[in-house]
Amino acid sequence: MLKCMMRAVAYCCLLLGISQVSLAAPTLSRPVANYPLQCDEAFSCPESLLPRVSFWIEVFSRWDTGTAIFHDKENPHRVYSTLQRKEGCRKSRKGDSISQERKRLKRNLSALSQKLSSGSGLTESQTRLYASFDGASAQEVQAASERVRCQSGNKDRMREALTHFHIYRPTILAALESKNLTPELQYLPFVESAFNPEALSHVGAAGLWQIMPSTGRSLGLIVDNKIDERYDPRAATYAAAKYFRNSVDTLSEAAFENGGTVNAKDLNPFVITSYNYGVRGMQRAIKQVGLDYERLLLEYKSPSFQTAVKNFYASFLAARHVAKNSDKFFGVVAPDDTRRFASFNTLVLARSTSAKRIGHELGINIDELKTLNPALKRIIWQHKALIPKGYSLKLPYREQGWAASVAQMGQLPKETEKPGFVWHKVRRGQTACGIAEKYKAPCTSLRKLNKLNRSAMIYVGQRLKVPTKSGGISVASTKSSLSNTSNRTSTSGLTATTGVSNSAEGIGKSSSSLQRYKVQSGDTSCSIAERSGMRCGEFLAINGLRRSSVIQIGQFVKVSSKNSWHVVRSGQTACGIAESYRVQCSLLLDANRLTRRSSIRIGQRLRIPSQRY
């Protein structure tokens, strides 16, 4: 009887908005409410799941992204406190307010557990805290002290997502219908990306449906260094529909093999969860617990079946409920048409072409072109790479199409890509940032180019790409390509507008020579090399020196004059390059520390000796 009175008093305190932990702690204005869900034959709402769903409804509708919510990760509706913080729970560091609040709650829960174990009377704050446990044992309270989790609110993102939902909805419904899927799946992007087609997660999932790179490729999307169709809402939506169709079929088969009867109401919770956990993971789960989602949450054990997976279906039901009842949670939400799909014509490129050329020749604003083609990556819009041949490019709609304009553009000189990096073979004692410094390149760019993590671990013999400023697009010589072209004015205008070289043959082929330099007081080999625009290793090689060699004041050494380099292009050999500069091959090899068996690579820079034959 006394226990019931204590619980009743505690519940009243919660309704009055008194702090759950202590008067000095962040307060919870009211407990998590219960919501009547609209469940049907498509999606089940197990009774035991309702408190969990209610918590996520309030994450989407009550707390914004600047609110950190502290709760029990196994019983999410058990909310202890909230904390206002600009980043919510994100970017937490040891010792900050998030860390301190988690430790404080752990101490309070442990103290409560000890009081319950000893039978001692509870303080007022402990009574309020215990009310959320519904009479649980001291052991359960102690276990809960290890399960304090921080969740950021999502109210502001949900409101914004509602303003964009109507734009993508027709495409999503069409894709789902094409695969004979329930239209209720249209609400999943509220959970995945908040209907932001440019969203990118910290693990690499991207786009409206937050698809991982490998998954995207398996679903037929192009994901490479130039194109990422995960960012194209239409392509990504049809890929997601393909995923769900495969999930429904595969998990239905798994349920039949397990001896169960399959219906949508029981199957769909597993289908939704598979989007986070994987189809194979759900196959294993069905074999263990059958098509019983409540058993799945209570009994299924796997190292990867953790909090995020357990909450996924509940968060989907919550987002679906809030979206269907948005007027009750947000009032009237005005649609935002800034992302509305524009009408377009499609052009399949007959050859690789730059975005800049297309924009100039067809009179299309680059920003408009970019909006129509979200799958093209930044390297295309930075004019460092060409749009690949065969790509279906979207152009602003016009009734007469673009055939005539495109035909004229096809007569222009061919564009080619120059690599934006050189290769470097790691030697003993070198570090990634040391190599970057040697080439005067940003260390972060080198790490990114080679997909190195923050520690940037490298090993002897490893070949690294070192970024250079020479990468980009060049235009082939116009001498031959213009012989049959009547529109010469248009071609020269393109060259002027794009600002790229008009001759790929002239790259690095200016007159090459070495000059003599008299060593001064304070000079070192590397300081002389740096002033002359040379790498230290190249200076040593040209002068027959080693790192340990000592140079004397008054000594004459060879240094580079300007333009004494050649950038290797496709199909070239060291001796072929030497012949083109009328230099003995052996001299070019010696100047670059090469042998006749050495390989040279596209983009590599070669020193051209001054001696001619």
Can you give keywords for this protein?
Lysozyme; 26 helices; Membrane-bound Lytic Murein Transglycosylase D, Chain A; two-stranded antiparallel ribbon; about 625 residues
List the helices and strands and how they pair.
Elements (H helix, E strand, L loop, with lengths): L1 H14 L34 H12 L5 E6 L6 E6 L12 H22 L5 H8 L6 H7 L3 E5 L2 H24 L9 H5 L20 H6 L14 H25 L6 H14 L1 H11 L3 H7 L7 H18 L1 H5 L13 E5 L6 H8 L3 H7 L5 H4 L10 E5 L6 H7 L5 E4 L2 E5 L6 H7 L4 H7 L13 E5 L4 E4 L2 H4 L6 H11 L15 E5 L6 H7 L4 H7 L13 E5 L4 E3 L6 H7 L4 H7 L13 E3 L6
Antiparallel strand pairs: 1-2, 1-3, 4-5, 6-9, 7-8, 10-11, 12-13
Helix pairs in contact: 1-4, 2-6, 2-13, 3-5, 6-9, 9-10, 9-11, 10-11, 10-13, 15-22, 19-20, 23-24, 25-26
Strand content: 5-15%
Proportion of residues in helical segments = 40-55%
The SS-based structural class is: mainly alpha
Please tally the helical runs, counting DSSP H or I stretches of 4 or more residues: 26
Low-confidence stretches: 1-25, 478-512
